[in-house]
Amino acid sequence: MRYLNVLRRFNPSIAFPYSRINLVCRRISSLYQFNSRITSCFRGGDIEAARKVFDEMPQKNRVTLNCMVSRYVRNETIRVAREVFDTMPSRNVVSWTAMVSGYAKCGRLEEARNLFDGKDDKNVVCWNAMVTGYIVNGRVDEAWELIDAMPVKNDVSWAILLEGYFHHGMVDEAEELFDQALVKGASLYNAMLSGYVDMGCLEASRELFLRMCDCDVGSWTTMITCLSRAGDMESARVLFEDMPK
Protein backbone atom coordinates (compact mmCIF):
# COMPACT_ATOMS: atom_id res chain seq x y z
CA MET A 1 0.00 0.00 0.00
CA ARG A 2 2.79 2.41 0.93
CA TYR A 3 4.62 1.83 -2.41
CA LEU A 4 1.41 2.36 -4.39
CA ASN A 5 0.72 5.66 -2.60
CA VAL A 6 4.24 6.87 -3.39
CA LEU A 7 3.79 6.04 -7.07
CA ARG A 8 0.42 7.81 -7.15
CA ARG A 9 2.05 11.04 -5.97
CA PHE A 10 3.84 11.18 -9.31
CA ASN A 11 0.88 9.88 -11.34
CA PRO A 12 -2.55 10.04 -9.62
CA SER A 13 -4.15 7.89 -12.31
CA ILE A 14 -1.82 4.97 -11.76
CA ALA A 15 -3.40 1.71 -10.66
CA PHE A 16 -1.73 -1.63 -9.99
CA PRO A 17 -3.41 -4.84 -8.92
CA TYR A 18 -2.54 -5.46 -5.28
CA SER A 19 -1.87 -9.13 -6.05
CA ARG A 20 0.82 -8.14 -8.53
CA ILE A 21 2.45 -5.74 -6.08
CA ASN A 22 2.45 -8.38 -3.37
CA LEU A 23 4.02 -10.90 -5.76
CA VAL A 24 6.84 -8.50 -6.65
CA CYS A 25 7.48 -7.71 -2.99
CA ARG A 26 7.57 -11.41 -2.10
CA ARG A 27 10.08 -12.10 -4.89
CA ILE A 28 12.32 -9.26 -3.72
CA SER A 29 12.14 -10.48 -0.13
CA SER A 30 12.87 -14.07 -1.17
CA LEU A 31 15.91 -13.02 -3.24
CA TYR A 32 17.24 -10.94 -0.36
CA GLN A 33 16.88 -13.86 2.07
CA PHE A 34 18.61 -16.31 -0.28
CA ASN A 35 21.45 -13.87 -0.98
CA SER A 36 21.91 -13.28 2.74
CA ARG A 37 22.08 -17.04 3.39
CA ILE A 38 24.71 -17.49 0.68
CA THR A 39 26.83 -14.68 2.13
CA SER A 40 26.52 -16.14 5.63
CA CYS A 41 27.60 -19.60 4.42
CA PHE A 42 30.69 -18.20 2.70
CA ARG A 43 31.60 -16.10 5.73
CA GLY A 44 31.37 -19.23 7.86
CA GLY A 45 33.65 -21.09 5.45
CA ASP A 46 30.96 -23.54 4.35
CA ILE A 47 31.30 -23.35 0.57
CA GLU A 48 29.24 -26.49 -0.07
CA ALA A 49 26.30 -25.08 1.90
CA ALA A 50 26.51 -21.85 -0.07
CA ARG A 51 26.38 -23.78 -3.35
CA LYS A 52 23.43 -25.82 -2.10
CA VAL A 53 21.48 -22.64 -1.33
CA PHE A 54 22.44 -21.24 -4.72
CA ASP A 55 21.24 -24.37 -6.55
CA GLU A 56 17.94 -24.34 -4.63
CA MET A 57 17.11 -20.75 -5.55
CA PRO A 58 14.05 -20.58 -7.81
CA GLN A 59 15.27 -17.25 -9.19
CA LYS A 60 18.68 -15.58 -9.24
CA ASN A 61 19.67 -12.00 -9.95
CA ARG A 62 22.95 -10.30 -10.77
CA VAL A 63 23.67 -9.69 -7.08
CA THR A 64 23.43 -13.44 -6.44
CA LEU A 65 25.74 -14.33 -9.31
CA ASN A 66 28.28 -11.63 -8.49
CA CYS A 67 28.30 -12.82 -4.89
CA MET A 68 29.04 -16.40 -5.97
CA VAL A 69 31.82 -15.35 -8.35
CA SER A 70 33.46 -13.00 -5.83
CA ARG A 71 33.29 -15.50 -2.97
CA TYR A 72 34.64 -18.37 -5.04
CA VAL A 73 37.51 -16.12 -6.11
CA ARG A 74 38.28 -15.23 -2.49
CA ASN A 75 38.37 -18.92 -1.62
CA GLU A 76 40.70 -19.52 -4.59
CA THR A 77 38.28 -21.86 -6.33
CA ILE A 78 38.79 -20.04 -9.59
CA ARG A 79 37.54 -22.89 -11.80
CA VAL A 80 34.10 -22.90 -10.16
CA ALA A 81 34.03 -19.09 -10.20
CA ARG A 82 34.57 -19.19 -13.97
CA GLU A 83 31.78 -21.75 -14.36
CA VAL A 84 29.33 -19.40 -12.63
CA PHE A 85 30.70 -16.43 -14.57
CA ASP A 86 30.12 -18.21 -17.89
CA THR A 87 26.48 -18.96 -17.01
CA MET A 88 25.65 -15.31 -16.24
CA PRO A 89 23.14 -13.91 -18.74
CA SER A 90 24.62 -10.44 -18.24
CA ARG A 91 27.80 -9.36 -16.55
CA ASN A 92 28.75 -6.00 -15.11
CA VAL A 93 32.11 -4.54 -14.18
CA VAL A 94 31.91 -6.19 -10.73
CA SER A 95 31.79 -9.64 -12.32
CA TRP A 96 34.67 -8.94 -14.70
CA THR A 97 36.85 -7.33 -12.04
CA ALA A 98 36.34 -10.26 -9.66
CA MET A 99 37.43 -12.74 -12.32
CA VAL A 100 40.42 -10.65 -13.41
CA SER A 101 41.55 -10.37 -9.77
CA GLY A 102 41.01 -14.09 -9.24
CA TYR A 103 43.12 -15.17 -12.18
CA ALA A 104 45.86 -12.68 -11.27
CA LYS A 105 45.88 -13.87 -7.66
CA CYS A 106 46.46 -17.42 -8.88
CA GLY A 107 49.31 -16.29 -11.12
CA ARG A 108 47.31 -16.95 -14.29
CA LEU A 109 48.02 -13.56 -15.83
CA GLU A 110 47.39 -14.50 -19.43
CA GLU A 111 43.83 -15.57 -18.63
CA ALA A 112 43.37 -12.45 -16.52
CA ARG A 113 44.57 -10.24 -19.37
CA ASN A 114 42.35 -12.02 -21.92
CA LEU A 115 39.31 -11.32 -19.76
CA PHE A 116 40.45 -7.76 -19.15
CA ASP A 117 40.92 -7.08 -22.86
CA GLY A 118 37.50 -8.58 -23.60
CA LYS A 119 35.69 -5.96 -21.54
CA ASP A 120 34.97 -2.78 -23.51
CA ASP A 121 33.52 -0.50 -20.83
CA LYS A 122 36.19 -0.96 -18.18
CA ASN A 123 36.21 1.49 -15.29
CA VAL A 124 39.22 2.55 -13.23
CA VAL A 125 38.57 -0.21 -10.65
CA CYS A 126 38.92 -2.89 -13.33
CA TRP A 127 42.11 -1.27 -14.66
CA ASN A 128 43.54 -1.10 -11.14
CA ALA A 129 42.76 -4.80 -10.60
CA MET A 130 44.83 -5.75 -13.65
CA VAL A 131 47.68 -3.45 -12.60
CA THR A 132 47.63 -5.06 -9.15
CA GLY A 133 47.84 -8.48 -10.80
CA TYR A 134 51.04 -7.55 -12.62
CA ILE A 135 52.52 -6.02 -9.45
CA VAL A 136 51.70 -9.04 -7.27
CA ASN A 137 53.34 -11.34 -9.80
CA GLY A 138 56.49 -9.23 -10.03
CA ARG A 139 55.88 -7.88 -13.53
CA VAL A 140 56.36 -4.21 -12.67
CA ASP A 141 57.27 -3.07 -16.20
CA GLU A 142 54.00 -4.41 -17.58
CA ALA A 143 52.12 -2.77 -14.72
CA TRP A 144 53.70 0.55 -15.68
CA GLU A 145 52.76 0.04 -19.36
CA LEU A 146 49.16 -0.57 -18.34
CA ILE A 147 49.12 2.49 -16.08
CA ASP A 148 50.46 4.53 -18.99
CA ALA A 149 47.63 3.26 -21.22
CA MET A 150 44.85 3.99 -18.71
CA PRO A 151 42.37 6.58 -20.02
CA VAL A 152 41.58 7.69 -16.46
CA LYS A 153 43.85 7.25 -13.46
CA ASN A 154 43.19 7.90 -9.79
CA ASP A 155 45.34 8.03 -6.66
CA VAL A 156 44.85 4.30 -6.16
CA SER A 157 46.37 3.58 -9.58
CA TRP A 158 49.59 5.41 -8.68
CA ALA A 159 49.60 4.01 -5.14
CA ILE A 160 49.45 0.43 -6.47
CA LEU A 161 52.50 1.05 -8.64
CA LEU A 162 54.35 2.77 -5.79
CA GLU A 163 53.72 -0.20 -3.50
CA GLY A 164 55.01 -2.50 -6.22
CA TYR A 165 58.23 -0.54 -6.60
CA PHE A 166 58.85 -0.58 -2.85
CA HIS A 167 57.97 -4.27 -2.61
CA HIS A 168 60.73 -5.04 -5.09
CA GLY A 169 63.21 -2.64 -3.45
CA MET A 170 63.02 -0.09 -6.27
CA VAL A 171 63.13 3.02 -4.07
CA ASP A 172 64.58 5.36 -6.72
CA GLU A 173 61.85 4.40 -9.19
CA ALA A 174 59.19 4.94 -6.52
CA GLU A 175 60.52 8.43 -5.73
CA GLU A 176 60.66 9.33 -9.40
CA LEU A 177 57.08 8.18 -9.92
CA PHE A 178 55.89 10.10 -6.86
CA ASP A 179 57.57 13.29 -8.10
CA GLN A 180 55.91 12.90 -11.52
CA ALA A 181 52.38 12.74 -10.08
CA LEU A 182 50.68 16.06 -10.81
CA VAL A 183 48.05 15.66 -8.10
CA LYS A 184 49.00 14.03 -4.82
CA GLY A 185 46.14 13.03 -2.53
CA ALA A 186 46.30 11.47 0.92
CA SER A 187 46.26 7.90 -0.43
CA LEU A 188 49.30 8.59 -2.63
CA TYR A 189 51.23 10.21 0.22
CA ASN A 190 50.28 7.29 2.49
CA ALA A 191 51.53 4.76 -0.06
CA MET A 192 54.84 6.59 -0.25
CA LEU A 193 55.04 6.90 3.52
CA SER A 194 54.27 3.18 3.97
CA GLY A 195 56.94 2.31 1.44
CA TYR A 196 59.57 4.30 3.30
CA VAL A 197 58.50 2.64 6.55
CA ASP A 198 58.79 -0.85 5.05
CA MET A 199 62.25 -0.02 3.72
CA GLY A 200 63.34 1.40 7.11
CA CYS A 201 63.93 4.89 5.70
CA LEU A 202 63.25 6.84 8.90
CA GLU A 203 64.56 10.26 7.83
CA ALA A 204 62.81 10.10 4.48
CA SER A 205 59.60 9.20 6.31
CA ARG A 206 59.97 12.18 8.65
CA GLU A 207 60.59 14.61 5.79
CA LEU A 208 57.63 13.35 3.78
CA PHE A 209 55.29 13.41 6.78
CA LEU A 210 56.21 17.03 7.54
CA ARG A 211 55.51 17.96 3.91
CA MET A 212 52.01 16.48 3.99
CA CYS A 213 49.27 19.10 4.08
CA ASP A 214 46.36 16.71 4.59
CA CYS A 215 47.31 13.95 7.01
CA ASP A 216 44.58 11.43 7.82
CA VAL A 217 44.53 8.78 10.55
CA GLY A 218 46.42 6.39 8.27
CA SER A 219 49.23 8.90 7.78
CA TRP A 220 49.69 9.48 11.51
CA THR A 221 49.50 5.76 12.28
CA THR A 222 52.05 4.90 9.61
CA MET A 223 54.49 7.48 10.97
CA ILE A 224 54.00 6.19 14.53
CA THR A 225 54.74 2.68 13.24
CA CYS A 226 57.93 3.94 11.62
CA LEU A 227 59.14 5.53 14.85
CA SER A 228 58.20 2.45 16.87
CA ARG A 229 60.13 0.14 14.58
CA ALA A 230 63.13 2.43 14.88
CA GLY A 231 62.92 2.12 18.67
CA ASP A 232 62.09 5.80 19.18
CA MET A 233 59.09 5.18 21.44
CA GLU A 234 59.27 8.64 23.01
CA SER A 235 58.76 10.36 19.64
CA ALA A 236 56.08 7.80 18.72
CA ARG A 237 54.17 8.62 21.92
CA VAL A 238 54.45 12.38 21.32
CA LEU A 239 53.07 11.90 17.81
CA PHE A 240 50.25 9.76 19.18
CA GLU A 241 49.32 12.49 21.67
CA ASP A 242 49.40 15.11 18.90
CA MET A 243 46.99 13.18 16.64
CA PRO A 244 43.85 15.29 16.16
CA LYS A 245 41.74 12.16 15.73
TrEMBL record:
The keyword Transcription regulation does not apply. PPR repeats lie at residues 30-64, 92-126, 154-188, 216-245. InterPro entries: PPR_rpt, TPR-like_helical_dom_sf. Signal peptide: none annotated. Keywords: Repeat. Pfam families: PPR. One of its GO terms (biological process) is system development. It comes from the Eukaryota. This is Pentatricopeptide repeat-containing protein. The lineage of its organism: Eukaryota, Viridiplantae, Streptophyta, Embryophyta, Tracheophyta.
